[in-house]
Here is the input.
Amino acid sequence: MSALPKIQFLDRTTPPHIFTLVLITGMSALSISIFLPSLARMTTYFDTEYAIMQIALSGYLASTAVLQVFIGPISDRYGRRILVLGSLAIFVVATIGALLATTVEVFLFFRIMQAAVATSMALGRAIVRDIVSQDKAASMIGYVTMGTALVPMFGPMIGGALEQAFDWHATFVFLALAGMGTFVLCYFDLGETVAGKGVSFSDQIKSYPELLRSPRFWGYVSCAAFGSGAFFALLGGSSFVASKIYGLSPIWSGIALGAPAVGYAVGNYFSGRFSIKFGINRMALIGTGVTILGLGASAILTFAGLDHPLNFFGFCVFLGLGNGIMLPNVMAGSISVRPHLAGTASGLGGAIMIGGGAALSQFAGGILTVESGTLPLQLLMLGVSVIAMLSVLFVIWREKRIA
Here is the structure.
């Protein structure tokens, strides 16, 4: 039996090509990370404070989380294609607006408007679930997210190179061109994947309790939130750890921070390769187990006095590896609990994951001091990873109970 339905590239009558899905889900991640090397110089350019300039990141993430809630129900009603194309068009307009901005207020307005492209990130998973079954969805999501996992590694490198060769404006020119190219590709390759005409908003509202009362939905979403929350906590504290605790140079800090992304890409490959064979619950359990083993070993070595960058950042490869195995499977599970509400489940699940992760990131940045060392962050990451595993075990218990 074929793992995926027959696909013809640039043919809207067949399911979209995986390359197309990689691009539409990767545009949001690219927009988050590519301009970060330019933040300091942009602060000087707009004659503002760094804390205000950081709204370009925090405001973007906040808007992304909100969009995740609303875009699912709208797409269930009106379809995926029109919303993906619309979000990409808004993204291109907003990027050009940010490029031409002369004040920080105007820039931040258009920057937050760029978050419209997060629509594609949420709907990419829903489109996968529209065209394949649950276990096959986990496999396909694994391959899709394996591609997008490379963005956090190479996005800042591209932005830094453009900044050095030109200035920060070049980064937004690149984003605008990338958005235009992705729009054209989706126009020719992405057909509508929602069967029929979707459901009315009144029926949508009536069916909300059906989704929200599902223990398995909350189990999958909790696993995604806490599992990815460990990574967001790392992002919140890693810069302090690298520069203040270990005194790493910017180059080595960048290499160290790329370690989880390498593990994540490998984990996504394993997810795509083995999810159909082993099932989504077992794969999620394996993924959380890998994370716990890696972070647990790192914490034990720190307790034993081995306080070294290779211990802290080296074992973070297992965090990325575990998340790469776990996330595609629990995402597939959350949107498969109620298949007719796949868009709603994808959006709500994404909002909870990003919102919870953002909170953990902020918390992680606040608990670290030079005196405390890395241990508080290591224990935080380990603790939320254990909760993620318990969430998967709850889903397994629930399924056996209702079987």
User: Anything to note?
Assistant: The first helix runs from residue 18 to 33. The chain has two domains: 12-191, 210-403. The chain is about 80% helix and 0% strand.
